[in-house]
Amino acid sequence: MTGQVNTGRPNQLLRNLHSKIASIPMILTAVVIFLGGTLWTVFYSFTNSKLLPRLSFVGLDQYERLWAAPRWLISIQNLAIYGVFSLIFSLVIGFLLAALMDQKIRFENTFRTIFLYPFALSFIVTGLVWQWILNPEFGIQSVVRSLGWTTFSFDPLYTPSIVIYGILIAALWQGTGLVMCLMLAGLRGIDEDIWKAARVDGIPMWKTYLFIIIPMMRAVFITTLVIIASGIVRVYDLVVAQTSGGPGISSEVPAKYVYDYMFQAQNLGQGFAASTMMLITVAIIIVPWAYLEFGGRKRG
Amino acid sequence: MAEVVTLNTRSATAGTATKLAAGPRGKKPRPMLSPRNIMIYGALLFAAAYYLLPLYVMVVTSLKGMPEIRLGNIFSPPVEITFEPWAKAWASACTGLNCDGLSRGFWNSVRITIPSTIVSIAIASINGYALANWRFKGADLFFTILIVGAFIPYQVMIYPIVIVLREMGLYGSLTGLIIVHTIFGMPILTLLFRNYFTSLPEELFKAARVDGAGFWTIYFKIMLPMSLPIFVVAMILQVTGIWNDFLFGVVFTRPEYYPMTVQLNNIVNSVQGVKEYNVNMAATILTGAVPLIVYFVSGRLFVRGIAAGAVKG
Amino acid sequence: MKTNSVSVRDLSLSFGAVTVLETLNLDVKDGEFLVLLGSSGCGKSTLLNCIAGLLDVSEGQIFIKDKNVTWEEPKDRGIGMVFQSYALYPQMTVEGNLSFGLKVAKLPQTEIDKRVARAAEILQIQPLLKRKPSELSGGQRQRVAIGRALVRDVDVFLFDEPLSNLDAKLRSELRVEIKRLHQSLKNTMIYVTHDQIEALTLADRIAVMKSGVIQQLADPMTIYNMPENLFVAGFIGSPSMNFFRGEIKDKGGRKVVEINGVDFAMDAYPARGPLEAGRKVVLGVRPEHVKVDEPGAEIHDAVVDIEEPMGADNLLWLKLAGQTISVRIPGARRYAPGTAVKLSFDMSMASVFDATTENRI
Fold first, then answer.
1. Is the pLDDT of residue B192 over 80?
2. Percent of chain B scoring above 70 in pLDDT
3. Is the pLDDT score of B5 beyond 70?
4. What is the pTM of this model?
5. Which of A34, A110, A268 to mutate to test the interface with B (most CBs of B within 10 A)?
6. Do A37 and A143 belong together in one domain?
7. Contacts for A284-290 with beta carbons within 8 Å, 24 or more apart?
């Protein structure tokens, strides 16, 4: 018992060995793919790789070319419009639906099933359905015209200036059910006594929602916001299915730009630069959130 | 009576004297047709109609013949129901030069989805279990990278993966795609399982260790039998997610292995030939059928899955 | 001479910057029932988990039966453990729960059956063997959990607050049963609890813990009557010991503790050393060591503030020397609030602590 302390202390590497072995896929994914892959792409965005990645550095050339390309500028503009409106509308519609669902209604399950089913469908299916509904020859426009209003015009998918709104309609149809579900969970998480107190105080319902409930649901709103936002940056399949970027290049989005340059135009450098820009966009959204969410908690 | 009188005088102007004469007693009557209810149910029904409309249009269109589509409007029910578009979509619709319909894409998707779901869940559940119960130094760091990675746009990581798979000789193969689905499913599934296993009583794990069970014995004999619901949630998440995938299918497989979504897009958006909207809609329904069935069958578990998996975006 | 069954040497444990246990030493004798007592967060469960091998220690050694087990797996330490939440495997029957560890250890089936049958007999759970834990009551579940430790046929039993999830009645029933079990098995038992009644009734010795340090390790009566410091004195006993802050003074050759101008003679107090005049002290007297309206050496006047009849006892809250004190008297004697009474203190049973070090003097 004397002298040597911790006799037989085993090798720290071998301790918990099974757990470490079992975690190898996770470690590889995290380090090689997520960390390594991201760094690799950022690194190669400073080269003029064409068909194959190669190490001839051109500084910020790719980025200059990118920000001079009309197609990229349209992509960014579309993403901005699509992003702002889809954030606003999905939060508003999602919250309104959730508030309606929270009125102790009958058939709650049926309504939820209806609002949420589009979320189970892929963007491809969503895009193709709305492509058909918005078809000018047979869809809504022609139906309204056949009702007698012959000058009615609603043709977003073939009108460059508003094509992005056509995509927005489809995206909202697909995604608001999810927002509704998250909001409803948030509403259900609020103490019943708050409602009782507000009722005793005689505060009208809309005021209770606006000044008491919504501020209390701050965390839910932020989470939802991050989820919607990271989905927005990725929007790709929907555009491919609904418009293929057309008419012309008027509904292009960054994710499609990346794919096209990497795998179609054989201009990897451009693809890498564009995807790095996407990464930066996401970082701008995520970093402040992560800081508020986790950085603040540590101090608190 | 005195009470009723005071009530009466106070609200005489409201003109509800007759009602009040009886005095409020017992359960408050809640007429189904109050203005409040009309507004709530009206709004909900309107919204429901909007959400159901595309499904209705899909079904209706797929059951019409092309001449009827050209004449009528997309909302009118079919005059003459025909299943021909469905048959054609399944067996003989053309993508480029191939004219064997969606069936090939369907079977490809089955061959992609089943192994991807199994492998990704197996790996992620063990990861989550290791993180919850057998934490080792550095484990949290890798997990943090994994979760942060879930927010990185796929486009940033796609090309390096192409290179890795090419080096391994797996680029373009089904195995390669299964690996890709396992990789990108890992953050959310690991989070899901980690949180679930953390929520199980820790003393159970301790008791099993005192009983002499090791890493794998505890996983298979104690944890697995207790965790069936979360495995179902993960399965729902993965089956719908992988079935609905388009990007990875396009990037990581050769045309003969294209999943159903890719093939559907190729059929509908092919520029050649006359557009057959009824066939297109039948094909669209067929592609959406699997996740829809999963959705309708699983019900509440699906909601739980997306609430957990919402991060996937 | 009895040998040590479990020895803990200079044990330290910290999670990052937080130190949970600090150079802790503890010897548990063979066949002893030792209770680790403390409020939540004092490190008592942590210590038990270290002994069980469920937590890796930062520094120090653990010996069980004179074998260094500091880095052994829990299963190789010769321990059985009973948890607060019972921790029964929900998908297995009672029999499956009892035999799981034995099956993992690959014991022959006949031996497994023999051990399970014996444990079931001792704990009288034979009729429950085929049931699932969800079909059992709380008391039955905890019996099964004890049985799971029993079948392991080990020298040392570890209990981690085993009765805390049970209601008061079941708790006292099982308490008696655990005591009976210890008397018949004569195993070493280490028992963690925050309940002083459990500690006082079950223990051969109690280790009172606070902030990862053992404050006092002694038999229950010593702990109760001669607390080593202010913390132990205040922690044990309900209602709590009465404390008075004062100063030792020399008055006519007699040592007294003066509290707000009232003198308490210290003649009968069994002091460990000289009581130096001028020393600031805390005088502690348990509620049952104050007599009301009975003849005594020294009489103090007080007024009844509140009366709490508790059946067998009657608890009086009185004002004395500007402070509130509680006194326990037989339940039959009643006092209305406002009644003036005469108190006398049994100083032979009192405790005096240094006001700064808080240790007994």
1. yes
2. 87
3. no
4. 0.86
5. A34
6. no
7. A285/A226, A285/A229, A285/A230, A285/A233, A286/A226, A286/A230, A286/B148, A286/B151, A289/A222, A289/A225, A289/A226, A290/B148
